[in-house]
Structure formats: structure tokens, C-alpha cells
Design brief:
heterodimer; A: alpha+beta; Thiol Ester Dehydrase, Chain A; 16% helix; B: mainly alpha; 0% strand; globular
Chain lengths: 131, 79
């Protein structure tokens, strides 16, 4: 759910965008006569951008990431032909867990934002008590 | 606030439980809130409350309320 990453500081932030063309697979059904971008996909775009901020850290390229929990707010619809600018910030990165914030903008209006928690299981799992 | 109160507060806040649940030695994975993610959140709060950084082995071994008290002794924290 990202077309381009325009700026990244590993471990700190990542910015980019996603263009929603008229031909996206979901528009015909979401919804007929009133196409707009599903909230779940807006959240996915923000989560993927946050993942970029983490997996650009030295040694973490290509690591699998999982979502842990997200708290998201949707403020305005996104329509075909619009571009979602995505800005994410890492609040903390420790022991395989990243807590971060993301927002999506269309023409400088915030259309969605989220507090997100993601993990690199390969790292996180090393700290879990053995039963 | 003394160390015991601080320690109890971490558990109560991390897992949204009443203090009475700690009397019989709460253990990892015995309540839904103390799963792997809850564990890391609790560890972070312990470190912040007592201004320490736990070693990896101690994080892994920190599997119950009582065991945690023993582990904190290593860091010269008496609960």
C-alpha cells in the first residue's frame, strides 16, 4: 500500500505516498456509486510506512514484521484520483517492538491517523519467558 | 512511594488487575493481559519505575510476580 518512500531516517521516521487511481480493485465494491478507500487499507499504508522506518535500520533489512495493535482514527474519505501522503514517526524501538505514530494527508488535510505497535518477531521472541 | 508499592503499581497498571490478584503469585500467561506483548510492556514499566535496564536473561526469567522480586535483588532493589 505504498507507491514511493520519499524520505526516511532509520529508526526515526519515514514519509512517502500512495496514489489511488481510478482502477483500484476495491473501488467498484467499496462502494458502488460512491467509491472511497477502505479504512483498513489506509491503516495498512500507515503501518507499512512505519515498517520502512524500522527495517531501514542497519541489520534489519528484509526482516518480517507483524502488527501487534493499532488505534486508528478516520477523518475524511479518500476518493479515486487522490494521493495519500503518509508520514510516520517512531516513538520507541526496543527489543523488537516499535511504537509509532502515523498520519495520512490528502492535499494537506489529515484524513487518517494512528498510534501503532509493530514487531519483528525474530527479535521479540528472544525476550519471552519460556513456559 | 516505597519499592513494594512501586512494584505492585507496575503490575496493576500493566495488566489492569486488582492488587488482590497478586497475592497468590501471578504468573506469565495465566491471565490474558500477561501475554508476550503485555510482558514486554511490564518490563518497560519496571525499568522506568526503578531506573534500571534488565539483562536479556532476566527478562526471560521474569515469569512471575514473586520471581521478579528475586530478580530485582540482583539490581540492588529490595521489594
Amino acid at each position: 500500500m505504498i507507491d514511493n518512500v520519499t524520505s526516511v531516517s532509520p529508526g526515526k521516521f519515514a514519509k512517502g505516498y500512495k496514489n489511488f487511481t481510478n482502477n483500484e480493485w476495491f473501488f467498484p465494491q467499496h462502494f458502488p456509486g460512491n467509491p472511497n478507500v477502505p479504512g483498513a487499507l489506509q491503516l495498512e499504508a500507515m503501518a507499512q510506512m512505519l515498517t520502512v522506518a524500522i527495517t531501514t535500520i542497519d541489520g534489519l533489512k528484509g526482516k518480517v514484521t507483524h502488527a501487534l495493535s493499532h488505534e486508528v482514527r478516520f477523518k475524511k474519505e479518500i476518493f479515486p484520483g487522490q494521493r495519500l501522503d503518509i508520514i510516520t514517526k517512531v516513538n520507541s524501538w526496543s527489543r523488537g517492538i516499535c511504537e509509532g505514530y502515523g498520519k495520512g494527508l490528502v492535499e494537506e488535510d489529515i484524513v487518517c491517523e494512528a498510534n501503532m505497535k509493530i514487531t519483528i518477531p525474530e527479535i521479540f521472541i528472544q525476550y519471552i519467558p519460556k513456559r | 512511594m516505597n519499592n513494594k508499592d512501586k512494584y505492585i503499581k507496575v503490575f496493576v497498571e500493566s495488566f489492569s488487575i486488582k492488587e488482590s490478584k497478586l497475592k497468590k503469585d501471578l504468573k506469565y500467561n495465566t491471565i490474558p493481559e500477561w501475554d508476550s506483548v503485555g510482558h514486554m510492556s511490564m518490563i518497560g514499566k519496571i525499568e522506568k519505575a526503578f531506573k534500571i535496564t534488565l539483562e536479556m536473561d532476566d527478562i526471560i526469567d521474569f515469569s512471575s510476580f514473586k520471581t521478579g522480586i528475586k530478580i530485582l535483588k540482583k539490581y540492588k532493589i529490595k521489594v
